[in-house]
Design goal:
This protein is of the alpha/beta class and about 425 residues long. About 40% of the residues lie in helices and about 20% in strands. The protein has helices at about 5-20, 45-55, 100-105, 110-120, 135-145, 170-190, 200-205, 230-240, 260-270, 290-295, 315-320, 340-345, 355-360, 375-385, 390-405, 410-425; strands spanning about 25-30, 35, 45, 60-70, 80, 90-95, 125-130, 150-155, 190-195, 210-215, 245-250, 275-280, 300-310, 325-330, 350, 365-370. The protein is globular.
Length: about 425
């Protein structure tokens, strides 16, 4: 029987996982992500969060989740996990669910008491340095240290850092400064820290470098990745002689940190130069009306459509296939998941030159990087793209190859292997 390359690759990955032994130590994860319990006692989680947790259960056999829980009727966008087989062995510890800084302070004694007990009953403790109103890592780190527990810290983003070029209040500057100091202390006192990009490691981990490791965060599954044959057909259609305009997608929150206003300025420059471009904007946010106002000023060759929001799933991935490139003009150092989503559909990325994006984009191989917060540079890049569709096709093929090593499952396999190695070294 003939086995195609994709099937063979899946088989090899499955076999590789079988060589990794499950972790039977009592594993406690403490996060700010809320769950909801209704009047029947059924628990609901955000679908993406539930999916990620389910991956943990494949290698963590004694798992406890401590997180805030709110009491309300069944949420429309939540998934019930109470009766899900994969969640049957999970213990939930419900923490207070504050709605303000005042509530967080008032409920702090109860939160600390529950965390002290939960950490004391665990062998491995896992947390992070983000979350409102108080990052759980700020509470978990000293307790884990006092109790001598093996402590895992994951740094996926740095929302406390100030946006470049944005005017901020003194209060926000103080919060950012304090957050940076406390988070650096948490990172340096963890037994293992997993970063999603190199800049976080370089700026936060100032000692014991061997305890820090970079594993990029991705949400794509192997089944989301199109085949090379499908990619070839899709690109044949996209670069046919009938194609008259470069077609781009911006997908994300319409906030200043996402660089959407920089993108709109670049569109104005292209419109003034009569460069033909179609741009679809997928998402919502505080700058939506401002973006629409700027769009109304365009008169020539640039066409912008606002698509609203779209749930993450099959329809979203099908939509991605329609574009020559995805544009990611981020101002912050975060690493948007849209990069990997685009790769899965053989779509290259036009991105700003930030630390987070440089870590996941190979310049002129899986995408092209332009100066950050620079409308002229972004406009020049888009103009070049409009004139070089075949180059975008080549980069799209390369990005598809990279997608296979950047799945959600691969991310967890890497974390699994790393955790096993560190536990062996630490004799936990």
């Amino acid at each position: 029987m003939q086995v195609n390359s994709k099937t063979s690759e899946k088989l090899e990955k499955k076999q590789a996982l079988e060589f990794l032994k499950p972790i039977t130590k009592r594993y406690l994860m403490v996060m700010n992500i809320r769950s909801t319990c209704d009047e029947k006692g059924d628990r609901y989680l955000d679908p993406m969060w539930a999916k990620d947790l389910a991956e943990h259960f494949k290698y963590l056999k004694d798992f406890t989740l401590a997180s805030p829980c709110q009491q309300e009727t069944s949420p429309e966008n939540g998934i019930a996990v109470t009766h899900e087989p994969s969640f049957s062995n999970v213990e939930f510890i419900d923490l207070p669910c504050p709605d303000s800084y005042k509530d967080a302070i008032l409920t702090l004694p109860a939160t600390v008491a529950k965390l002290w007990s939960a950490i004391g009953s665990s062998d491995i403790v896992h947390s992070c340095v983000t979350g409102w109103p108080i990052p759980m890592g700020w509470l978990v780190t000293p307790i884990a240290l006092i109790q001598g527990k093996f402590y895992v810290l994951v740094v996926e983003s740095a929302p406390w850092r100030l946006e470049p070029g944005k005017t901020v209040k003194i209060k926000d500057r103080i919060i950012a400064y304090v957050s940076e100091i406390v988070n650096r202390w948490c990172v340096n006192n963890a037994n293992l820290t997993i970063f999603t990009q190199s800049e976080y490691q370089q700026s936060l981990l100032t000692k014991r470098q061997e305890r820090g490791h970079i594993i990029h965060a991705s949400w794509i599954d192997e089944e989301n990745i199109i085949s090379e044959a499908d990619a070839a057909q899709i690109w044949y259609r996209k670069i046919s002689p009938s194609t008259k305009k470069l077609k781009l997608l911006f997908a994300g929150r319409l906030e200043s940190s996402k660089g959407v206003l920089v993108l709109m300025q670049a569109m104005k420059i292209l419109d003034d130069k009569n460069i033909a471009v179609n741009l679809d904007i997928l998402g919502d946010g505080s700058l939506l009306n401002q973006c629409k106002t700027l769009n109304n000023q365009l008169q020539k060759s640039v066409n912008i459509q606002f698509l609203g929001t779209l749930p993450y799933g099959k329809e979203f991935f099908r939509l991605l296939q329609e574009y020559h490139a995805v544009v990611v003009p981020n101002l912050s150092n975060e690493q948007p998941r849209i990069v990997y989503d685009a790769y899965s559909q053989a779509v290259p990325v036009l991105a700003s030159n930030t630390d987070g994006l440089r870590d996941c984009i190979q310049n002129h191989t899986t995408g092209v990087i332009a100066n950050s917060n620079d409308p002229v540079a972004l406009a020049d890049l888009i103009e070049w793209s409009a004139q070089n569709l075949s180059a975008l096709q080549t980069m799209g093929k390369a990005s598809l190859q990279q997608a296979h090593s950047m799945t959600h499952q691969e991310m967890h396999r890497s974390r699994w292997q790393l955790l096993l190695n560190m536990l062996d070294l630490s004799k936990v």
